[in-house]
Amino acid sequence: MSVVVEQTIPFSSTALDLGNTARWNTLFPLIRPSVKTVQTQKGQNIVVDTAKADGKHVHIIAVGTSGNFSSKLLDDKHVTAIVTEEKGAGILHATDLPHTLQSAGIQVLHGVVVVRAGKQRKFDAHQPYVLEIETNGGLEQDHVLQLLGTATETTRSNPHHISDLLKAFVQDASTAHSKFHTEKSEGNPAILHVDGTKGYARAKHAVERDLQHVLKAHSSVSKDDVVYSVHYSDVNGLSRLENYIIAGEISNYLDSQNIQYTLSHSTVLDHNEQARGFSVSICPLPSYFLAAKQKPIPHQSTGPTSDTAALKKALSPSSSKITFEDAKVRSRIVAGCEAVIKEESTITEYDTIVGDGDCGYTLRDGAKQVMSFIANKDLSRLPETVAELVSELEVNMGGTSGALYCIFLTALASSLASADSVPKALQKALGELCKYTNARVGDRTMMDTLIPFIETLANGGGDVTRALEEAEKGVEGTKTMEAKLGRSTYLDEAATRGVPDPGAYGLLVLLRGMTGS
């Protein structure tokens, strides 16, 4: 991998000016191109996601505060519109917003729900199809937005069901807020809970204390046909690792209590309070509003010894319909690998232009690993050897191309042991690979080489020359293609025009070497 290090100087708060609503009216369309800024009849600006124009669900409008937008508001694609400013020629009411959405081309036949962060929970149904909920702060606002985006299809499409859902939230939701204290307590890191400061040796105990506090309000709720919607926010930016730990401890505790639940997360900024921390909001809901998360099925090991023996038997020469001559197979593999190593600089040059510059190194290192691995192997037992090779490449060959090669070779090891010809074995392995990647011909990937080569070889009577010609056409075609997958999708088409896909070209080099062309 090539690494470029440059000094970066953070923008000052003054330069960012994130409290300026005009900045957000410009930034939101950049974050999501389908968003545009429109004005209400009273002069307030709101940003509307035009992708929701013909949506079949109740439209969600969030009222936010510039400079304090949570990650939920920035990321959530279920939200149709965000009110970035409330000052105007008059007070902005929920009933003013449907007309504004319609002026932006949004169909509001299924109704509108306005989610506003305030100081106390309350719900109003201004009209049968115009609902409004005020939450107690940003945590609860994010929780409601999550609920509205992940509720059952029946609920999201019906304003009456949405009304019942929001009423249940206002009545039954409970929260807990914790802040990291600057000083230790009892020799341990301290956290300020709602009931005071306490030191903890492990994060688990701090999280469990908050969960016990919020669940106490629901101790009388039956667990039958009830799903607990659980949302937690990290306040003022916890690290990804810290968030993973909190999420894991929440899941472990709820599982230990045999509670059916869904878990969601957001990041909340509080400029009035610099302390970092986390908050939890929980609301029990009837299961017809919300489906519980699927619990993973524990892996049932059948024992490595029996599996290994069965695999070796299936891939043994006695079970293969194809006879492999060690010398011929070795010659082809070595020639292909040497060709890739020789062409590494060209592959790297192409990938530096259209990717991250590591494709050449990845293929070169993979080729060296293959040659080292087969040096003392009996290649007349090719299916078994290929299967063993994959274990080596999985560790030593990185990148997206490394993963695709490993998947393909795993399938090829099996198909070589069962097919009656190499072209058919390659075709079967290709079919397996296509189950694991969406890439096809025309997507500007290594598949532009692999697919035409194998299909021509399998359907053309094993004509290697013709198969290679089709593979070369595939690589040539990538020079004018717009990338649909991988890192090249982030580049302007003009930047990639005339440059072949590095992965496709690298595979072509390998095939040329193996076929002696």
Automatic annotation (TrEMBL):
The keyword DNA-binding does not apply. Keywords: ATP-binding, Kinase, Nucleotide-binding, Transferase. It catalyses: D-glyceraldehyde + ATP = D-glyceraldehyde 3-phosphate + ADP + H(+); dihydroxyacetone + ATP = dihydroxyacetone phosphate + ADP + H(+). The keyword Transferase applies. InterPro entries: DhaL_dom, DhaL_dom_sf, Dihydroxyacetone_Kinase. It comes from the Eukaryota. Residues 327-516 form the DhaL domain. GO terms for biological process: glycerol catabolic process. GO terms for cellular component: cytosol. One of its GO terms (molecular function) is glycerone kinase activity. This is DhaL domain-containing protein.
